[in-house]
Records
---
Amino acid sequence: MLTQTIFPVTYSTLACEALQRQILPLFGVGPVVQCHFWNRGLSDIYLVETLTARYVLRISHTHWRTKSETEFELELLNYLKRCGVPVSAPLHATDGNLFVEIRAPEGFRYAALFPYAPGRIPIGDLSVKQGYKLGEAVAHLHEAAAEFYSCAHRQPLSLEYLLDESFGVIEPYLRFRSEDLAYLRSTIDQIKNRLCDLPQRSPYWTICWGDPHSGNVHFTADNQLTLFDFDQCGYGWRAFEMAKFLQVSIRTGIARKVRDAFFQGYQSRQVLTPLELETLQPFTQAAHLWNWCIALEASKIHSCSRLDEYFFMSRLQQLKMLQTPEWQLF
């Protein structure tokens, strides 16, 4: 027997032809020659070509960002662009809004259109010079974002969010591994104890990009850069931003000299206090836990097939490595 109602879905892939016909004309960029589905991450990314330019169409997932959170991010990007921060800022739709609302089978999703960032992701990862320039750009971002205001709401990158909520997502997967679960609880308590004295005020507290790494920046041939992918942005500690860069860099094997250049570039504009430098290790552990949580949440849309023994053991081992005195040795 066939059901007569539309079956509920967790996620749908929106058709390129329909986006080209119904959504892209609302941004007034002219006739679209091609629209390709490019990548599924925390949002869906489509590459768009007109007769004169290339664009990136980003469509939110219902499980990740609300309408208000999307509005906050897009307003922030336009503000940062006006302040001279090298970000890819969204275009306005013909009605003046920064996004178009789409009624998808799973709920409302939000489409934003960006100019294609000039250049490309660094080949072979960041050079020392590129690491320095990226650090400078992140410091510039923090300076400018300190004056930003929006009526829209964005989830702060607080300890409750990064640690407690992440633990709530991870815990069910470890419910039959009591020793690992106890270790995770103990580690989170230790992280909180090491971070409890960090003030939640300027200059320590600002708006963070949330995902600073080489995959989210394009460099031109003369090393001019453009930052993009602010899906994880929010109010948070600038020390956490630096630790998020370390967490991704250590996991992907970026050389120590490049990581050091990133910090040198940052501190050429903003000097981290001794207290902030002391928090880098526990914040890197917090970033690792948050990344773990995001991967588990995303598996509901991408695939659960990789959530095997290796997935959990490798993340537990990485967390243990980040607790050692040699966590930044290589």
Note: Residues 30-115 form a domain with the Phosphorylase Kinase; domain 1 fold (CATH 3.30.200.20).
---
Amino acid sequence: MDAFVNIGEKSDIGEYVILGKDPVSLEKTLIIGANCKIRSHSVIYRGNDIGSGFQTGHGVMIRENNLIGDNVSVGTHSVVERENIIEDNVRIHSNCFIPEFVTIEERAWIGPSVTILNTLHPPCPGFSECAKGIVIGKGAKIGGNVTIGPHVRIGENAVIGFGSVVTRSIPENCVAYGNPARVAKKKSELKCVSSLRERPYDWEENDE
């Protein structure tokens, strides 16, 4: 075992996985909790602190110095850049791009092929400060193929429709969609078109 890698019990590491990749001689340990499943061809750098129950799809890239909670899942071919905070029970689907300095709060759901962009004027000499401030709130739902721009905050329990381009912050408990995305209604006003439930997300109300 690499001196810079610490893996918890009952974790399953797939073939061709690289753990503890050294980003310019970073002498920090990669910590991965118990009961994790790292699927083939994933690469996870040193300096990450990852909780229990973590899963990756195939070919996932996770750069250094991320703080990742328990029961987080990152889908196939997704990229998580450095210095992000990803809280408990977050689901990131396949082909997503998470840049630096993003906070994704607990139970947020990120659909496939979501792209988050953190800088307005690349390459900016003040990137490390200017790029900060993107937050995906607790329990937010981001539909597939959504693009989220710099300095945007998605409110707690907000829902973003698939294919949207989010250029400004969205309040909590709102539904927004379009290009650019605009608030259309409250989450409580959504209707279940399949008539399987009284309304979407009613199953979450006991948790909120």
Note: Residues 125 and 177 are 33 Å apart (CA to CA).
